[in-house]
Amino acid sequence: MSDKCVVMTTFSDDAVGKAIIHSLIEKRLAACVQVQAIESYYHWEGAVNHDHEKLVMIKTTTDLYEQVEADILANHDYDTPEIIQLPITAGYSDYLQWIASECK
């Protein structure tokens, strides 16, 4: 199993997103955070919703996942935010080493 991962979350409020991102980077819980505009369709509280959100892809280590999750929850405004960990099963070795060196 890889010791590097990508954690994904979403946000709709830019101030919330910036708080999450800056907290993760400043605490060295993430080596890199990428943000992309997306449209989300989902069921919530009995209704189908369509929102414009930002998808956040956080490059980190599996050892830090619980801290990353806690930090997202501490800064997020959603009742049930998406927080998903995806393993990095392969990648350019220099980049993977960089992730390890940036995350503390």
TrEMBL record:
Single Gene Ontology BP annotation: response to metal ion
InterPro entries noted in UniProt: Ion_tolerance_CutA, N-reg_PII-like_a/b, N-reg_PII/ATP_PRibTrfase_C
Family annotation (Pfam families): CutA1
GO molecular function, one term: copper ion binding
Domain of life per record: Bacteria
Stored SUPFAM superfamilies: GlnB-like
Family: Belongs to the CutA family.
Record's protein name: Cytochrome C biogenesis protein
Taxonomic lineage from the root: Bacteria, Pseudomonadati, Pseudomonadota, Gammaproteobacteria, Vibrionales
